[in-house]
Amino acid sequence: MKKARLIRKIPGDDEDRLSTLPNCVLCYILSFLDTKYVVQTCVLSKRFKNLWSSLPYLNFDSTSFNKLFSFNKFVDRMLTLRDNSVRVDDFKFNRTGKISSKFLDKVMNYAMSHCVLRFNIHVEYNGFDHFPESSYSSESLKSFELKIHGELTKLPSFPELKVLHLASVRLAHSDLVLSCPCLMDLALIDCAAPKLDILNIDAPQLVKLTISAGCFLSVCKVVVSAPGLASFWYSGSHSLLLSILGELSSLEVVSIDVDRHHL
Q1: SS3 of 40, please?
Q2: How many C-beta atoms lie closer than 10 Å to residue 52's C-beta?
Q3: Which tens digits make up the pLDDT trace of 175-229?
Q4: Residue 64 within any structural domain of the chain
Q5: Distance, CA of 119 to CA of 129 (rounded, Å)
Q6: Nearest CA-CA partner of 44 in 82, 12, 18
Q7: CA angle at residue 197 from 196 to 200, to 5 degrees?
Q8: C-alpha separations of 153 from 66, 102, 138, 206, 221 in Å
Q9: Is residue 186 domain-resident?
Q10: Closest Cα partner for 131 from 108, 162, 157?
Q11: In 82-229, which residue ranges form alpha helices assigned H by DSSP?
Q12: Assign residue 118 a region: left if phi > 0, alpha if psi is -120 to 50, beta otherwise?
């Protein structure tokens, strides 16, 4: 005869403890989730019914969807139904496949118009020639990370920007100027510049400069005006034509890695 297992019920075990947490705690927990799954929490309880619409974090990832059409529709509907009175602290947008400039421009305009602080865009596509730059206006943006196989005809110059990471972008025109008075961390990763002759970096507060260059970026001249520069990292297949304006009394770390076959 089998012994019956006694299960002692813990007082308050049926209590919905998650719903009793303060909004700030719930928002922090949900900030680690893809926005798709955040919206799905609306069925958990009355407390969660509309919470998704007022979160200051947006994380859109197309890999969470079976079809890109469904992803586009979700993003469009989410931006329409979200509480417009709530600012966006963090905005992450990861999209595979072909994307239209109109749709991307809508995403960027929404982020910029809602006082975004940190903006991360990763887009992979084919047949896209020009990156929408109409949204290069924000008084709040602190960090901007852009990985996109498209062309930039001008560089962003956000007044409060402190971190700028550009990856896999194609820099157009013969001369480009990067002017960000508060910029402290700049990274150019595998950026192509077949037409670029001179890249001017004017950043008086710049502390860290990282350049990981392909063969295209190595053919242009990089002029840097950053008296407070403390760290410089360069790696590439070719040597870099670099011009530093002024003294670098703050420089502490220098790392240069060049393919010896191209020296």
Answers
A1: helix
A2: 20
A3: 666 778 899 999 989 887 777 778 888 888 999 999 887 655 556 788 888 889 9
A4: yes
A5: 22
A6: 18
A7: 90
A8: 34, 17, 18, 23, 17
A9: yes
A10: 108
A11: 101-113
A12: beta
* Residue range of the domain that includes 202: 56-262
pLDDT tens for each residue of 1-10:
455 554 455 5
Q: What does the block give as tokens for 76?
A: 């469009």
Domain count, the chain: 1
In a domain, 131, yes or no: yes
Contacts of 110 (CB under 8 A, 6+ apart): 79, 88
CA distance 156 to 141: 11
Phi, psi of 19 (to 5 degrees): -70, -15
d(CA 56, CA 77) in angstroms, rounded, equals 17
Please write the tens of the pLDDT for every residue from 139-166: 899 999 998 877 777 777 788 999 999 9
Mean pLDDT of 136-140: 80
Contact of 94 with 62, CB cutoff 8 Å: yes
Give dist(CA 141, CA 90) in Å, integer.
10
User: Cα–Cα distance between 149 and 22 in angstroms, integer?
Assistant: 41
Tokens of 194: 């077949």
- Helix axis angle, 101-113 relative to 68-81, nearest 10°? 30
The two three-digit tokens of residue 91, written as one number: 């905005």
Both structure tokens of 161: 């920007």
Q: Is residue 194 part of a domain?
A: yes
Tokens at 108, concatenated: 């960027």
SS3 readout for 42-86: HHCCHHHCCHHHHCCEEEEEHHHCCCHHHHHHHHHHHHHHCCCCC
- pLDDT tens for each residue of 91-124: 999 998 888 878 888 998 899 999 999 999 998 7
